[in-house]
Amino acid sequence: MIYRIFKNTMLTIFAAAVLVPSSIVVLGTFKEDVEIYTKPLALPKHWNLNNFRTLIDTGNVITPFKNSVIVAVFSVAITIFFASLVSYVIARSITVTGKVLFLLFSLGLAIPGQVNIIPIFTLFTKLHLNNSLFGLVLVNIALTLPISVFIISAFFKDLPKEMFEVASIDGAGHWRVYRSIAMPLARPAIGATSIFLFVICWNDLLYPLMLINELDKKTLPLTLIDFRGEFATSYSMLFTAIMVASIPMVLMYVFMQRSFVAGLTAGAVKG
Amino acid sequence: MAFPAFAIYSFLYLYPALSNLLYSTQRWDGVTKPEFIGLKNFIHLLTDDDLFMKVLSNNIRFAIIVVVLQTGFGLLFATFLTENSKTNIFLRTVYFFPTILSSVSVGLIWTFLYDPNYGFINATLKAIGLDKLALNWLGDSKYSLYAVAVTQIWFHTGQMVVIYVAGLQQIPAELYEAAEVDGATRWQQFKNITWPMALPTTAVIVAYTTIQTFRAFDLVYAMTQGGPLNSSDLLVTLVYNTAFVGYKFGYAAAQTIFLVLLVMLVTWLQRRTLRIDYGDKK
Hints:
By secondary structure, chain A is mostly helical.
């Protein structure tokens, strides 16, 4: 009895802790600042999209959104492609190459990516890769390769060896085996890893903050940070911008929940 | 086939990591010619830098609070939600939700909640007559670090719940049935079945969360930028400020080397103790 009361109280408190702030933000996108301060949880007086309109007219939210999409999509696609190739070599190699490659990429798991901010900054300044979306894509690839190789190679290693051997005996080259056997079989792992990487690239602040200062190259997290100063924290604008920045993630979460959760937990467990 | 990944990784990960070692032995403002000073950066860092020690102690406190509470709540809620009933699946979905948001969004949402004048938390406290508790959460150096830690826990507890649920569902139901027959209480069942059986999961979660807390940047930057008076400064925010606000590139590089060694040491220690704990001879 006491257990049930305790359990239900705790569960309700935490559910409220998640739902209340989320509702404040969603409802806030329809409100004016004063309304947010005085009645944060009340339904908005007027259901209109004025905040979204103001945001699009005045604030620069379309460009950062586009930039974020470009950076995230290219980073994820290239990382997955390169990582799956290496993972294939690691999983299939019987020589020492596979082991060396695996060790090399494991090293990247031991060194947190944040540690490279100074050398990356100086290197990118030298190569004029700062203030460039291509530069951000390169950084993302380098930073997320180790974890991707770790997850995908583990998956490849678990596939039955016979499938590869049979194909090789039938005369299929490595490319063919990679393309027609390894990749199709790995689809769930690839999907989950892609989502995990997408979340990382979409949300990253540190590297864009360091490398980007031109307005038209900014990604969403940078723009959100700017909102604080720019509008002397107009929370209605801020909430609307947060809403815009979160929509892709929310949609992915709703429609691909299983891969989404699998990706984010695999990233944690294997990392 | 391995070449593209190998090339990009060597050039943009391994090579920078090595040049970071070199930078750490230099006095350098990022613009003029660097000057080699040997281990002076490290000596200064460890013997004569009060700010660094303060930030280090902040980060350790932050790590302990977040690791203990996030793991604890994760396990608690996972034991409540292990079964795949409709309510449980719904609650797990709700709990996981913050994980999908960006650190910056979460940080800014909580900045509103904590706002001393207009914020939801203080408004609620005042409404129920607890005016005394309506503090300046992020603006007071006594509370800022803990306020950020609470946000971090809110952010990632749901993810831990989901990982724990996957672990707890592997525990054979017969164990609980047998315990039930023998008249074991809930607490005894938790102590003697759930906790030992979940130890491998706990080890993973603790290791992951620890590393996350020593890498933390985005959330702090969005909420307090390390302030006030460096009270919520963590190692990575300090490195960022040392390099890009203070223009001490060599010194910042030395700080990052220290950070790497610290993270390695902590993970190694954790692995050792947790392995002994669950008697795994791997």
